[in-house]
């Protein structure tokens, strides 16, 4: 049984709610459900009773929780002791980031990291959205700030670094361009841009759904945009609509030919630290703690 499976089971046993468990672990509801089903199939017993209104531990689930919890805590403590005994925080840390605010967070965190751990080095790399996992898996970065949600089972999601409202991007002259705000149902019949094919579908669908809450269609363009500059330029032609973090759009991408309008019922745009679980070490843990400290101070 993997540590991640233990963590998901024990968190659900504590929360008794799939949505809160997913939020607490920064993973999807689907991954929580899939993990529990896999455990139940492997163990040959139901661990939870589920209805549309409630989630409850079965008798077998309660026994499993009571037996597993001290073992899991022991594993965590053992890992912490080994990592603490592995030596001081030394060497090179390679950090990736997406977006302008993330760049400021990384800069501030890197300076504090080097000050607290003399002799260390930090190399920073900008990560485009279409490289969301590639540089991490290739070892070109050790840890990176990236767009949520993240559902990769071998990735640990650390502290959330930024959260901002999602804004519609529309060409000046578009029927919605002069609105103070919109809701998703206002986008019925429009055509979303399409990001690079390397961006996971679940990330695209999370922010840019194909249907409105009332079930009406929002089309998606066949033309793909690999960078944010490409997105803004394509939107300016009036062929598609786009979306992005309101804070970043107004500060860094303001143009006379596009408008940014808050989408009041859309999910917030959030970024968080992530790293490969098996690669976690004292450097990553130290940097993670510093990012948690400095991120709230960065405008």
Automatic annotation (TrEMBL):
Pfam families given in the database record: HTH_1, LysR_substrate
Family: Belongs to the LysR transcriptional regulatory family.
PROSITE patterns hit by this protein: HTH_LYSR
Species of the source: Streptomyces venezuelae (strain ATCC 10712 / CBS 650.69 / DSM 40230 / JCM 4526 / NBRC 13096 / PD 04745)
One of the record's GO molecular function terms: DNA binding
Entry keywords, A to Z: DNA-binding, Transcription, Transcription regulation
Protein name: LysR-family transcriptional regulatory protein
Limits of the HTH lysR-type domain: 1-58
GO cellular component: protein-DNA complex
Parts of the chain that traverse the membrane: none
């Amino acid at each position: 049984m993997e540590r991640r499976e233990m963590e998901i089971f024990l968190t659900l046993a504590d929360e008794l709610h799939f949505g809160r468990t997913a939020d607490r672990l920064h993973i999807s509801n689907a991954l929580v459900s899939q993990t529990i089903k896999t455990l139940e199939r492997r163990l040959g017993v139901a661990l939870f009773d589920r209805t549309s209104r409630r989630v409850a531990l079965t008798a077998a689930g309660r026994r499993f929780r009571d037996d597993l919890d001290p073992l899991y805590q022991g594993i965590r403590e053992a890992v912490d002791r080994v990592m603490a005994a592995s030596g001081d925080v030394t060497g090179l840390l390679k950090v990736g980031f997406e977006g302008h605010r993330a760049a400021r967070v990384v800069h501030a965190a890197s300076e504090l990291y080097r000050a607290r751990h003399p002799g260390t080095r930090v190399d920073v790399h900008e990560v485009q959205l279409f490289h969301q996992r590639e540089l991490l898996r290739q070892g070109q970065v050790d840890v990176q700030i990236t767009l949520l949600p993240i559902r990769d089972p071998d990735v640990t999601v650390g502290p959330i670094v930024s959260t901002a409202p999602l804004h519609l991007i529309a060409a000046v002259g578009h029927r919605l361009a002069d609105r103070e705000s919109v809701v998703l149902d206002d986008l019925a019949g429009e055509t979303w841009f399409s990001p690079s094919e390397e961006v996971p579908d679940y990330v695209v669908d999370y922010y840019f759904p194909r249907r409105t809450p009332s079930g009406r269609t929002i089309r998606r363009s066949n033309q793909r945009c690999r960078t944010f500059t490409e997105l803004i330029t394509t939107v300016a032609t009036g062929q598609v609509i786009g979306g992005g973090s309101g804070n970043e759009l107004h500060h860094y991408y303001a143009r006379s030919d596009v408008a940014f309008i808050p989408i009041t019922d859309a999910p917030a745009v959030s970024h968080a630290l992530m790293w490969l679980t098996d690669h976690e070490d004292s450097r990553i843990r130290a940097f993670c703690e510093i990012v948690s400290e400095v991120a709230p101070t960065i405008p």
